[in-house]
Amino acid sequence: MHEHFLASEYPPCPPARAGFHIIPVPLERSVSYGGGAAQGPAALLAASQQLEAWESGLAPGETGFYTAPPVDCTGPVAEVLDRITAAVDTALDCGAVPVLLGGEHTVTLGALRALATRAKQRGEPLGVVQFDAHADLRQSYEGDPYSHACVMYRAAADLGLPLVQFAVRDFCREEAATRERLGVTHYDARFLARVGLPEKPFPEGFPHNIYITFDLDGLDSSLMPATGTPSPGGLNWREAQFILERCVAGRRVAGLDVVELAPIPGLHHADFTAAKLTHLLMGLAQAANDQQPAEARS
Fold first, then answer.
1. Considering the chain, what is the average pLDDT of its residues?
2. Known binder of ligand: residue 132?
3. Structural domain boundaries of the chain?
4. 197-224 residue pLDDT tens
5. 215 marked among binding-site residues
6. Per-residue model confidence as pLDDT tens digits over 62-83
7. I want to staple 4 with a disulfide (CB 3.0 to 4.6 A). Which of 13, 67, 190, 222 is the partner?
8. What pLDDT sits at residue 258?
9. Measured between alpha carbons, how far apart are the two ends of the chain, in Å?
């Protein structure tokens, strides 16, 4: 029996009535430094039992939380991605916001495939908002096009999704060139620290519907050491919250994920931070989506 998100405060909701489908995806296949991402979803769910029912005055659990069984991550990565897409499709069929818990960052691609297909069918473009220490824009890494280092290239180049990046501070010359070629908007950690966040961070014409992917190494390593590649110079909690609030303002959040938690035994503050961030993201998504016209919420 798997653990349910914040079941200490909200009894698990039937999937057809839940506002959020939490989907654990313990994939760990291409990590290139520290390991442990496969244990991330379970650690986050366990830590969520210590959360309060409210987060920053928001209570997304009042719309209902359904925590799906963990996605089977055995077999070829292509098959795992298909299973993720199917789980996200189920959430969308129920009218819920899918919330993926990784696992390595590759899991995001499975969610984006489902959402991009729906967006195309409805004629409503989808944009991706990425928080990360890394650009993840390599075409292939260590011979693997499905590496966690390639997930945003797959999203932007293969799926054609507009992308905005926040807090990146570790990337290569190839990725810088890819940014220019694909027109990726970016507010790197150094820019945010020295200049700050613009009032309107999205470029003109960026889609109204967004998917938020939050790699936990986007946070500063002093706050989030429990990840495969902890990096100094990242966001603190209040900075992350402020940027997220500005990103969701006036938009509809179609889905989100929190990825790359690699728990460190005995260091429970990192697991709790990951759970608290997930709860905050759901609260901000619910508040933003509630402001949309009824037809946009369907």
1. 96
2. yes
3. 15-291
4. 999 999 999 999 999 999 999 999 999 9
5. yes
6. 999 999 999 999 999 999 999 9
7. 67
8. 98
9. 32
Q: What is the residue whose two structure tokens read 């950690």?
A: 189
Q: What is the predicted pLDDT for the residue at 146?
A: 92
Q: How far apart are CA 1 and CA 218, in angstroms?
A: 32
Check the annotation: does 21 bind a ligand: no
Question: Residue 258 and residue 81: Cα distance in Å, rounded?
Answer: 16
Percentage of residues of the chain with pLDDT beyond 90: 93
Pairing of β 252-259 and β 209-215: parallel
The answer to whether 134 is annotated as binding is yes
pLDDT digits (tens, 9 = 90+) for 269-285: 999 999 999 999 999 99
**Global pTM?**
0.97
Position 265, amino acid: P
82 is in an annotated binding site: no
Sign of CA dihedral 176, 178, 180, 186: negative
